[in-house]
Structures are given as structure tokens and as C-alpha cells.
């Protein structure tokens, strides 16, 4: 739509690069570039450096595959966390979301996605084998499946469950039900059905 | 709202820097940072370099104050453009918008904003004196005011008009009327009133 005639090739290049980011259109890219032009040189360098340093320096925890700065992430290396419980999540945002609840004291295992044949993602593209190996090595008593409640998430849950059957680890899945403050009448049938089926004694 | 616990300080720093950009919230910043993490190192460096190079290398045309890579912008240094006509605009996006119409063959003068006492922007913060000086030096027969049809734009138009009165340059303002494909019944009264007052002979 926007067939810009740039008066500066430096500006055009920056707009092109910014516009390659997901969800950033050409108009937003131009707006951001012109904003950066008005900032002090040091601020633009700080932004640029932070991106390159992150990309170059980032590592994945050798135990849970969470993003971290060292060989072992802060959660895995924290002796006060419960190493016998492993929560399986899709990505690093999910780790953050669960950490923000302050309700979980165990460790994680970041799969890096879910099984999705439509997107060409199979079990071997994910950290499933490493999870099974981690459980096999002992010390883990419970694996909590905390994937998204989608078909892909359910498929992945089932795949992991079957893989872990050979071990004697307890496999649980996070509760599905109506969300806090949701209105019952607007809740979809599957969620409401699951919430009924998964009812627990009052006062728990 | 999002009180993220980052497992990586490198990631946290990048998210903080990205989140400083206007219109980019903390969730979008995290999404962009994680996207960049998945890209090849060269791509992240290309983005970072383009920002720093733009900020360091960009210059403003000494005649029209448009953004450019040299001392004189491509438009001002183009001998086929009509140097006797100068179109006054607020910023570089407006130059692009007018260039995209392919209807204008004259030169520009980029003010860098409009007079806005509420934002503390006075005439001396804008390239108005340089415009007057440019006209005084001769060779300009028409100054076209193409600022936004807002109170600030109108104030700036009037200020420039008064400043140019001492010269014998012709000062015009771009037409205001109903926009192409706008529905008459939904057009506001001021616009419709101006469109009526500014009517021209049919067939022009």
C-alpha cells in the first residue's frame, strides 16, 4: 500500500529492517525509525547493542531448556525449588506466566513448541526426548503437563504421557474449567462440560 | 500489569530497550525479542546496524531540511524539478505523501512541526526563518502551504503568511474540501462549509 519514496537510503534501510519484524507494518516501521532519529545517539546504540548482545549471548539451560545466561538457569540452580516436580510448558513466556502466579515451587521443562503436523513440527523437534531422559535419571516424582488447551496441546500431552508410561512418574495435567471472573452463560460448552466433569469437593 | 520474571538478563535488557519505543508495550517487546532470538545472528546484526548507521549518518538538506544522506537532498539537487515553487510541509512523512501523488514537481520546505503553544513549540523551534530567508534570496515565485488542517496548522499558516508579506511571493494553501469517496451526509459541517465556499467551475 505504502510505496514510499525515501529521501535517504539510510532511513529506507532502517525502515526495511524494522518492517521485517512480525506485526510491524511499513507505516509503524517508518514511525519508529523517525522516532529513533530524534533520540540521542547513545540511546539508539543501547537498543542496537542490547539486541545483538542478547542474540549472541543467550543460552538454553541444559536441564530445562529455558532461556538463560549460563549453563544452568536460575530456577534449576535454585536449591530451594522442589526438584521432584517438573512442569512441562511450551515456551519461555509460559514459564514467566507461571512464575508470576507465585504458586509454583518446582522446576520446568520447556518443550519449545507443541506437536503440530500442520506446521511440520513433530516430537523430534521438541524437547520431549530430553524430558523422558530427565525422568529416567530419577529424582522426579511428578510431571505436570501445562500446555495450551488446544488440539495440538492435547496431542502433545498424550504423546508425552505415553512416553512416560514406562517410568513410574506421576503425570498430572493442569485443571481446565471456567476462568476467574468469566460469566457462566458465555462460557463455551466444552469448557463448561470439562468444568462440571472436573468438579472438586467444595472448600478445597 | 506484566511483572515479568526474566530468566535471562540479556533478554530482560533487550525487552526493556524495545519496550521504550513508542507504541510498543511490554508484551509486544517480549514477543519481538523472542522472535529475534530465533533469527540468525546476521539478521539481528543487520537490524541493529541499520539503526545505528541511520542515526549516525543521517543529515538534513541545507536547503529544504528534508532528511537525506548528503548535504543537499535528491529533490533539491534534481535539476528537472521546478525550483520556483516551494511546498511547506510539517515533516518528512508529508514529503513522502506528496511525492507519492506524483502530482508535484516543485521543491519542499520541511518545518519540523507546527506552532503549538500547548506543546511549547514556537516559531523559533521550526524552520520558518530559513523559509523566509530562502524566499528573500529570490527565485521562488510561489509558496504552497500544505500543513495539517488543524488549529496548529492554521496558526502556522497564518504566521508564515504574515512573515512572507514583506516579500512579493505568491502564497497559496492546498484545497480543503470533501475527500474522495467520502459520503456527503457524514462529512462534518466545517469541511462541508469550506467545500461549498471553495467551489470551483465544473470541468476544471
What is the helical fraction of chain A, as a range of percent?
40-55%
Oligomeric organization of the protein chains: homodimer
* CATH hierarchy: architecture of the largest domain in chain A: 3-Layer(aba) Sandwich
Q: What string, H for helix and E for strand, traces the elements of chain A in order?
A: HHHEEEHEHEHEH
What's the rounded overall pLDDT mean of chain A?
A: 91
CATH topology of the largest domain in chain A: Dna Topoisomerase Vi A Subunit, Chain: A, domain 2
For the structure shown, list the relevant keywords:
Dna Topoisomerase Vi A Subunit, Chain: A, domain 2; homodimer; four-stranded parallel beta sheet; Helicase, Ruva Protein, domain 3; globular
Characterization of the model:
The structure is a homodimer of 204-residue chains. With 204 residues, the first copy, chain A, is of the alpha/beta class. The first copy, chain A, has 2 domains: 9-57, RecR Domain 1 (Helicase, Ruva Protein, domain 3, Orthogonal Bundle); 67-201, Dna Topoisomerase Vi A Subunit, Chain: A, domain 2. Helices cover 40% and strands 12% of the residues of chain A. Chain A has 7 helices and 6 strands, in the order αααβββαβαβαβα. Chain A has helices at residues 9-19, 26-38, 41-57, 92-101, 129-136, 151-164, 189-197; strands at 59-60, 67-68, 82-89, 106-110, 142-145, 170-173. In chain A, β3, α4 and β4 (106-110) form a beta-alpha-beta unit. Chain A is globular. Chains A and B meet through α1, α2, α3, β2 and α4 of A and α1, α2, α3, β2 and α4 of B.
Amino acid at each position: 500500500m505504502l510505496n514510499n519514496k525515501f529521501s535517504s537510503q539510510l532511513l529506507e534501510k532502517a525502515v526495511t529492517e524494522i518492517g521485517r519484524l512480525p506485526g510491524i507494518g511499513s507505516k509503524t516501521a517508518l514511525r519508529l525509525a523517525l522516532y529513533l532519529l530524534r533520540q540521542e545517539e547513545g540511546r539508539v546504540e543501547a537498543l542496537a547493542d542490547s539486541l545483538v548482545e542478547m542474540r549472541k549471548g543467550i543460552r538454553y539451560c541444559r536441564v530445562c531448556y529455558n532461556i538463560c545466561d549460563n549453563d544452568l538457569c536460575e530456577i534449576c540452580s535454585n536449591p530451594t525449588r522442589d526438584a521432584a516436580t517438573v512442569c512441562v510448558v511450551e515456551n519461555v513466556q509460559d514459564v514467566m506466566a507461571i512464575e508470576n502466579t507465585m504458586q509454583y515451587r518446582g522446576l520446568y521443562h520447556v518443550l519449545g513448541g507443541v506437536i503440530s503436523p500442520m506446521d511440520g513440527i513433530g516430537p523430534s523437534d521438541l524437547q520431549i526426548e530430553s524430558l523422558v531422559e530427565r525422568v529416567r535419571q530419577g529424582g522426579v516424582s511428578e510431571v505436570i503437563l501445562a500446555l495450551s488447551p488446544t488440539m495440538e496441546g492435547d496431542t502433545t500431552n498424550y504423546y508425552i504421557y505415553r512416553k512416560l508410561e514406562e517410568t513410574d512418574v506421576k503425570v498430572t495435567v493442569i485443571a481446565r474449567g471456567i476462568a476467574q471472573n468469566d460469566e457462566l452463560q458465555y462460557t463455551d460448552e466444552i469448557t463448561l462440560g470439562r468444568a462440571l466433569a472436573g468438579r472438586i469437593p467444595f472448600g478445597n
